[in-house]
Specification:
rod-shaped; 2 domains; Lipocalin; 14 strands; alpha+beta; Nuclear Transport Factor 2, Chain: A
């Protein structure tokens, strides 16, 4: 019996020794992955490449917010076609990124940067981004992208922004405005002068004008004054309804 107790104690000792010598799993320390992201971002800044080349084919990418491209994409192909391409198609120049910070914790790599480009609508697109990424085997396998979705919405839907501007801001009043019968032809010139033809009478009235918001005020060279209003693409002036001709 004593021998059995001795054998049992020896067995426990061997088991304890084996467990105490087993390797302890180390926490994830993505130092090399951070170096990879930093090097690729540097290439992006210099116009040689971009970070999207590091995406895994089965990447899971989430665009936060409620913009037209917000949502989760489950492959590189889907993300590039449905999120990246609609944005780049609105840009006249490549997106120019500038690094703000690159950090990591035990699970994620955090990349913060700002970027700007010229849009095809003629305005400047600017945004700030924060990407929460996971990298495996030198590929980005998941990312949640936080950004200013209002700025992105303006880029993707420029006509919505234009429609909210006054005709003064868009200078959409410049051109020829004509009544339905073609009798009155009212031309607003870029130098704040107008020239109005009536029937066969060319330059029947001439003078200056001033636009404020959607309102227009006239002062004819003979001394009389008048006003008008632009509303939904129509000029209402002195009881007349005039539409712009292209």
């Amino acid at each position: 019996m004593g021998d059995l107790h001795t054998i049992y104690r020896i067995s426990l000792l061997i088991m304890w020794s084996a467990s105490s010598c087993a390797p302890i799993p180390e926490a994830y320390t993505p130092a090399k992955d951070v170096e990879l992201i930093a090097a690729q971002f540097k290439k992006w800044e210099e116009g040689e490449s971009n970070l999207f080349e590091l995406l895994a084919d089965d990447v899971e990418w989430t665009v936060s917010g409620s913009s037209p491209v917000s949502g989760t994409y489950h492959s590189k192909e889907a993300f590039m076609q449905k999120a990246v391409e609609p944005i780049t198609e609105r840009l006249a120049t490549p997106l120019q990124p500038t690094l703000i910070s690159l950090t990591y914790d035990s699970t994620y790599i955090w990349l913060q940067f700002k970027a700007s480009a010229q849009s095809i609508a003629g305005s400047k697109y600017e945004n700030q981004y924060l990407w929460k990424m996971q990298v495996q085997h030198q590929k980005i396998v998941s990312c949640t992208a936080f950004l200013d979705t209002y700025a992105l919405e303006e880029l993707l839907n420029p006509m919505d922004k234009i429609s909210e501007q006054t005709i003064e801001e868009t200078r959409g009043y410049i051109g020829m405005w004509v009544t339905a019968d073609g009798y009155i032809r009212h031309e607003l010139l870029p130098d704040n002068r107008y020239d109005e033809a009536r029937g066969n009478r060319q330059s029947a009235y001439q003078g200056s004008y001033k636009v404020a918001g959607n309102r227009i005020d006239y002062k004819d060279d003979t001394g009389f004054t008048a006003d008008g209003e632009f509303k939904e693409g129509i000029l209402y002036h002195a009881g007349m309804v005039l539409k712009e001709t292209k």
